[in-house]
Specification:
Strand order of the largest sheet: 7-6-8-9-10-13-14
Structural class: alpha/beta
Number of domains: 2
Shape: elongated
Order of helices and strands: HHEHEHEHEEHEHEHEHEHEHHHEEEE
CATH architecture of the largest domain: 3-Layer(aba) Sandwich
Helix content: 40-55%
Bound molecules: phenylalanine
Distance between the termini: 40 Å
CATH superfamily of the largest domain: Response regulator
Number of helices: 13
CATH topology of the largest domain: Rossmann fold
Number of strands: 14
Length: 381
């Protein structure tokens, strides 16, 4: 179905070409996307790509922007920082894109952002939440909240809603995202009166978590905070339940993949994570987006990445429309001026740090097979 949509995007160019006799068709505007289309975070890149392609299809169906259609160049980062830098270098230097969308993983956005900053090509990360990402420079934006807030939201939910006052944390030390979010959770959790009873680490891709889980079991936590990515979290959940650990697990947006429940099955039931969006949130914009997405992508329900990819692309289109020209400095200024944009993931205003300040939702993995169910919203501070 993704192929079909691409074909559609290409076909959409034809009517313009047909009119070429009278007036030469306007050249398309090329934008870039770099994301993990394969590897252990594959659904991050695939969902983001789908969201972006849906936004492109919709704008091109309306004739594009000021008569120019949008064309997408996309490269796979395989979840690797070096590949991410290479991909963005290609987009900027060879493909001459006007702007870049990506990455999801903070580590990869951190690796590639300097390329965009140096070339004065705006980059919008749909979903990287580590604060340092946009500190790479004034050409680097994001349309999501940042981890000091996400960590607070997790800590508030654990202490306030779950009344879980003893927590263990298990952190992927190879991911800037996990390290940063883990720190922010611990900081806020202790401020709110909670006690960290065990701090354990692993490195993404590890297969055996026995040592860490043995230490955690001994510490008898009420909750285990795991700010990692879905493949590892799935493996951890399975092993934890096998070892007799029954405490609920709590995580962040890195859990947001249908793969998590496929790996963990009932081991993840009754666990929670903070996220950017919940498909069952009562909101008209969300309902319309889900319907459009399901139609385009074989009845798949969009996850938060798809929603953020869609929002990032639409914010870029609005900026292109408002920009004086497609030159980097003009487009940068137009993106920076984004205010009250009605996104699927909430109303988006970019602040002076080029970050979005938005609410965070908490979802529970409930049912058989476990599916994310909306629990509550934590408003930005
Ligand atoms: N916020 C994560 C990071 O910065 C990426 C992510 C976002 C993953 C949304 C899943 C959903 O690395």
């Amino acid at each position: 179905m993704r192929k079909a949509l691409l074909a559609l995007a290409t076909l959409a160019l034809i009517p313009c070409i047909a009119q070429a006799a009278a007036q030469p068709p306007a050249a398309p505007i090329t934008i870039g996307h770099y994301g993990s289309l394969t590897g252990s975070e594959a659904t991050f890149g695939q969902s983001t790509s789908n969201g972006i392609k849906l936004a492109i299809e919709q704008i091109n169906a309306k004739g594009g922007i000021n008569g120019q259609l949008i064309l997408l160049k996309e490269y796979d980062t395989k979840g690797d920082a070096k590949e991410a830098t290479l991909a963005v270098t290609r987009l900027v230097k060879s493909d001459k894109v006007v702007a870049v969308l990506g990455e999801v993983a903070s580590k990869l956005s951190l690796a590639a952002a300097p390329v965009c900053q140096e070339a004065q090509v705006p980059m919008i990360s749909p979903s990287s939440t580590n604060p340092r990402v946009t500190q790479a420079g004034d050409y680097i934006f994001r349309v999501c909240f940042i981890d000091p807030f996400q960590g607070l939201a997790g800590a508030k939910f654990a202490t306030g809603t779950l009344k879980a006052m003893n927590a263990a944390v298990l952190i992927d030390q190879a991911q800037a995202y996990a390290v940063g979010l883990g720190e922010q959770f611990q900081l806020n959790y202790t401020k709110l009166g909670g006690k960290i009873v065990s701090t354990q680490t692993y490195s993404g891709g590890a297969q055996d978590f026995t040592a860490q889980l043995t230490a955690i079991r001994t510490a008898k936590p009420d909750i285990i905070y795991i700010p990692g990515y879905y493949t590892d979290v799935g493996n951890i959940a399975v092993q934890a339940r096998k070892m007799g650990i029954t405490a609920p697990l709590l995580g962040g947006d890195g859990w947001d993949s249908a793969e998590l429940a496929k790996i963990a099955k009932d081991a993840i039931e009754g666990s929670y994570y903070t996220n950017h969006y919940a498909p069952d949130q009562p909101d008209a914009k969300v309902v319309q987006f889900i319907a459009d997405y399901r139609k385009a992508f074989g009845n798949q329900t969009p996850d938060g990445l798809a929603a953020l990819g869609y929002d990032a692309a639409n914010i870029l289109f609005a900026a292109i429309k408002n920009s004086k020209s497609l030159a980097g400095p003009d487009l940068r200024a137009a993106i920076a001026a984004t205010k009250d944009f009605p996104g699927v993931t909430g109303n988006i205003t970019l602040n002076k740090d080029r970050d979005a300040e938005k609410a965070c939702v908490v979802v529970e993995l409930a049912g058989d097979p476990p599916q994310p169910k909306y629990v509550t919203t934590v408003a930005p501070r």
